[in-house]
Amino acid sequence: MPGHGHPLHVGVSGWTRPDWGPLWPEALEERRLALLARTFGCLEVDTTRFASPALRTVQRWTRALVSADGTGAAGDTAHVARATPPCRLVIEVPATLLEAKSPPDTEGAAFKEALRPLVRTKRLGALLARFDVELLYGPSEVRRLGRIALALEPLPLALEVRHPSWWDPRALDALRGIGWSLAHVDAASDWRRVPLRHAPTGALGVLRIEGRGGQPADPAAAHLALGEDLSDHRYAPPAMLGLARRARAIAREVDECFVIAANVARGQALATAFELRWLCAGSGPLPAWSRVEAAFPDLVALHAPPPALGPGSA
């Protein structure tokens, strides 16, 4: 999917969420990963944040991704163009690697070994390390991220942080020096003031769209993760246009950009990804699955060519 000459891949976070069940084309419920791989340019695997995957699990993912390159779709997928280039996975780094002050060499090596089928078939898009407000910019934190980068080299690395200290130009320079591409996030506005844009720190662009639901977080209780589900949010058409412009702008600054719809509650990420895929494609209708269209009657007109994206922001 083009981003003004730079690869821009749109996709969703996950494919096993129970509340997405009514949205899948009925005939393909046992082949969801392959269906998503035919439909979108990238997929985020967030379950790896809790545990490193087994090699056999990654082999199963790889087979599904490779099978998606085959021809002969049926039913709801007959009109869905395959992702070009082939769909790749954005894998979240296990928390055990992120939390260790000095990640054990054996743990990093085991994680990389498990991902070998994806690397060999060129289906690994990036490793994503996600931190919340507990990670502040400073010399010890930069050294810690440097050790993680060394443990995972030469795989492509993206970093998601939330503390405002990381938007300082000195922090951005430090991340460039140790090999991390800093991700962009779209989320509810709160005290952390995650910026809409920041200068790139590496060759990768990542934009995670988490939703703007719930109430702004209370800084005194941020570590408790209290409040409503922020992912329970449906983006209105003007916001979708802003996100598409933002994705295009990020893609122009990097070699490759992954845009992940993570407003996962009630399947809203699927609606978001279909709309963004349509808006960012630049030409031609790209309709959604019929069940998604039925569940989200407010979907923009995906059966027509998308509008030209002029300047603007989300």
Please specify the SSE layout and strand pairing.
Blueprint (H helix, E strand, L loop, with lengths): L1 E2 L2 E8 L18 H8 L2 E4 L9 H13 L20 E5 L2 H5 L5 H10 L1 H5 L3 E7 L8 H14 L4 E4 L8 H10 L2 E2 L1 E4 L16 E8 L25 H17 L2 E6 L6 H14 L8 H6 L19
Parallel strand pairs: 2-3, 2-10, 3-4, 4-5, 5-6, 6-7, 8-9, 9-10
Antiparallel strand pairs: 1-2
Helix pairs in contact: 1-2, 6-7, 8-9
How does this structure look, described?
α6 (139-152) runs parallel beside α7 (169-178). Strands 1, 2, 3, 4, 5, 6, 7, 8, 9 and 10 form a ten-stranded mixed beta sheet that branches. The protein has one domain (2-295): Protein of unknown function UPF0759 (TIM Barrel). The protein is α/β, with parallel strands linked by helices and 314 residues long. The protein contains ten helices and ten strands. The model is unreliable at 71-83 and 220-226 (pLDDT under 50). 44% of the residues are buried.
Q: Quick gist of this model?
A:
By secondary structure, the chain is an alpha/beta fold. The protein has helices at 32-39, 55-67, 95-99, 105-114, 116-120, 139-152, 169-178, 237-253, 268-281, 290-295; strands at 2-3, 6-13, 42-45, 88-92, 124-130, 157-160, 181-182, 184-187, 204-211, 256-261. Strand 9, helix 8 and strand 10 (256-261) form a beta-alpha-beta unit.
